[in-house]
Write a structure and sequence with these properties.
about 350 residues; about 40% helix; Four Helix Bundle (Hemerythrin (Met), subunit A); homodimer; 2 domains; Rossmann fold; alpha/beta; seven-stranded mixed β-sheet
Chain lengths: ~350, ~350
C-alpha cells in the first residue's frame, strides 16, 4: 500500500518537514537548515511521533556538523552542543535519545577529517531514516496477521506515516492488513488536546482510502460497550523492559476498555522504542505540556480564565493490559520480559 | 453555598435563559416569549441538562397557552401543539417528557376558563422549577455524606446549577460537601464534543471558588492509574427501573475506570429522571447529533473534509457499575430495582 505524502525528506543540505500543526487544513512543507530549527520543530510539534522525532534529530545533528565544517569550526563540539539541545526538546519518547546515541556512537569512531566525518554522519542519519521505513514495513507484515479478517479496529493518536519515516507503526499494521485483503474499518479517537487523531490519522487514512470513522475520545467506551470494536492498536513512545508502555495520553484508558470488554490491545513499535534501561514505566519521565493546549482551541479560549489545568502528554499502560507488541523482528507475547530479552540477545 | 448566577428565570411573561453555548466567553441572558423559541433553545442547547430542559419545557407550555389566551384562540389546542413540538427537541433525557406529562395532567384537570387555566398552568410550571431547586438541595444533603472528608472527585459533563433550576445534581452534592467543610478538589473532564465540562462546570466551580482542575476526557484514566481520584459523581439523563443510567457520552468510560480502580461511582439525579417505563437502557433512544460538533471547533474545521463521524450524545452505564444513586428522597444502593420500587411506592 503506497503512502501518498512524505513526513520527512532529506535534501542533502536541509531537512524538509510536513508541518503537522496545521494539517489537515494546510499541507505545508517547512525547510530546516540548522539543528536549532530542527529542535524547535520537535518542541513545537511540527514533527511528532516517537520514530519521526528520532529521525529528525539524527538529521539535526548532521546539520549542526555541516554548519561547523562549512564555517571551519570544530565539528565535535558542534555535535555535542546540538545533541544536548535536541535531547532537551521532549523527554518521553526514547527514540529521540536512541537516535542521538546512535549518531554519537558513530561520531566517536570517526577520524578528525571534517568532510569525511560529515559524509559518514549523513550516511548514518539516512540509515536511521531508511531502517525506520523498513522496520515499519516489517511490523506491518508481522502485525497484519493479528487483525481480524473483517472488523473494526480502534486506534488512538497518530502512529502512522506521519509519526515515522513513513508507512507507520500501528497504521502500518492496518495498512498491511488492508493490503492483504482484510476488511478493516478504523475508528479514530480524535485524541485531545492536540487532535492527532482528528487532524492526522483521519487525514492519513482518508488519503489512503482506508474506511474510517472519527469519534471523540470519550465515545470509544460506548463502542466497546456496544460490541463494535474487535481490536485496538496503538504506537508507543517508550516501552520498559517488562513490557510497560508509555504512549500518548488516553492510551491507558483504551487498554482498560479492551480488558473489560475482552478485546485484544496491540502495541506496534520498532525495537528502538524499547528502553532496556528502565525496569518499568515508573522510571519514565512523563512530559507535561502547557495548559493552553487544553484551554485554547486554534488560539481561542474555551475554558474560563485562570482555570487550573493538568496536561500530561503521555500515560502508561502496564504490561498486563497488552495482548502483544509488534516489532520489526516479530510479535512479542506476554510475559514480555522474556521476549524482550530474546529480542536483544 | 450560594450560586452566583441564574440558569433559568421566569418573569411572568417570558423565560430568561443564560446562553450556555457561548459560556464562559460571554454571559448573555436570552429572552423567550414563545414556545417555539423555547423549543429552539432546547434543541440548540442554549439550555441543556436533563432537569433544566424539563423546567424550560414547562414554561414553554405556559408561553404557548398565554399566547393562545391573549389571541382568543383555544388554549388546549395550543397546549397540545406546543407539547408535541417541545417533546420532539431531544429524545434521551426523560425529564423533558416527565415535565410535559406533568403539565398535561395538570391541564386535563382544568376548567375551560382560559385566564384561570393560564394562571393554574403558570403555577404548575413554577412548582416544577421550585421543586427542582428543592430536590437539588436535598440531593446535596443526602449525597454529601458519600464524598470523602478530603480528596479528589471526578465529574463529567455539567450536572450543576447550569443543568438544573439551580444548585445542581452532581455539583449540588459537591457544593453541599464543601459547605459541610469537606476538602474536595474537583477534576473536571472537558467533555467533548460540546465541552460542557471545560466551558460550564469549570466556570461554575470557579465562580463558586471550589478548587478544580480541568483535564481532557482521556486524561482521567491516568489520574485513576496514579491513584489520584477518590470518587466520581455524575448526573443522569434517564435511569431505567433496574438502575441502568443514560448520561452524557463518556460517562460509561468513567464508570469502567472507577470499577477497575476500585473507586466509587455515584449518580445524582432527581426522581423525575427515573423512567419506570423502561426495564433497562436498551430501550432508551440515544440521540445522535450532527458530526459537525466533532469536526468543527467554534466554526473552524479541525478534521479532514468529508470524514465520517459518529456522534452519539449519550451512553449507557449498566447498573452493576453504579455504587449509589443520590435522589432527593435519599440514597439508593444496589440492587437498585428494589430501592427504585420502594421510591415510587
Amino acid at each position: 500500500m503506497r503512502v501518498t505524502f512524505r513526513t520527512i525528506e532529506w535534501t542533502g543540505d536541509a531537512l524538509l518537514l510536513l508541518d503537522q500543526r496545521i494539517l489537515p487544513g494546510r499541507e505545508t512543507v517547512r525547510r530546516y537548515a540548522t539543528a536549532r530549527g530542527v529542535a524547535d520543530a520537535i518542541r513545537t510539534m511540527v514533527v511528532r511521533g516517537a520514530p519521526a522525532i528520532g529521525v529528525a534529530a539524527a538529521f539535526g545533528l548532521v546539520l549542526a556538523v555541516r554548519s561547523a565544517v562549512r564555517g571551519g569550526r570544530p565539528w565535535r563540539e558542534a555535535f555535542r552542543t546540538a545533541a544536548e539541545m535536541l535531547g532537551a526538546t521532549r523527554p518521553t519518547a526514547v527514540n529521540l535519545f536512541w537516535a542521538i546515541e546512535r549518531m554519537r556512537r558513530g561520531a566517536s569512531m570517526l577520524s578528525d577529517d571534517p568532510r569525511e566525518s560529515l559524509r559518514a554522519l549523513e550516511r548514518e542519519a539516512v540509515a536511521v531514516y531508511e531502517e525506520d521505513l523498513a522496520a515499519n514495513r516489517a511490523m506491518g507484515a508481522h502485525g497484519a496477521k493479528l487483525l481480524p479478517r473483517s472488523g473494526s479496529v480502534l486506534t488512538h493518536c497518530n502512529a502512522g506515516a506521519l509519526a515515522t519515516a513513513g508507512y507507520g507503526t500501528a497504521l502500518g499494521v492496518i495498512r498491511a492488513a488492508v493490503a492483504a485483503g482484510k476488511r478493516i474499518h478504523v475508528y479514530v479517537d480524535e485524541t485531545r488536546p492536540f487532535l492527532q487523531g482528528a487532524r492526522l490519522t483521519a487525514w492519513e487514512l482518508s488519503k489512503d482510502k482506508i474506511p474510517c470513522t472519527l469519534i471523540t475520545d470519550n465515545m470509544a467506551a460506548k463502542l466497546f460497550g456496544d460490541g463494535k470494536i474487535h481490536a485496538a492498536i496503538v504506537g508507543a513512545d517508550r516501552i520498559a523492559r517488562n513490557g510497560d508502555v508509555a504512549n500518548k495520553i488516553g492510551t491507558y484508558g483504551v487498554a482498560v476498555l479492551c480488558r473489560v470488554h475482552k478485546v485484544p490491545f496491540y502495541v506496534a513499535a520498532p525495537r528502538s522504542t524499547i528502553d532496556l534501561g528502565v525496569r518499568s514505566v515508573k522510571e519514565i519521565p512523563i512530559e507535561e505540556r502547557n495548559g493552553r493546549e487544553v484551554t485554547h482551541f486554534m488560539g481561542r479560549r474555551v475554558a474560563p480564565d485562570g482555570i487550573r489545568v493538568y496536561n500530561p502528554a503521555f500515560d502508561v499502560t502496564p504490561a498486563r493490559y497488552v495482548s502483544a507488541i509488534v516489532t520489526e523482528k516479530g510479535v512479542l507475547f506476554p510475559p514480555f520480559s522474556r521476549d524482550i530479552r530474546a529480542l536483544f540477545r
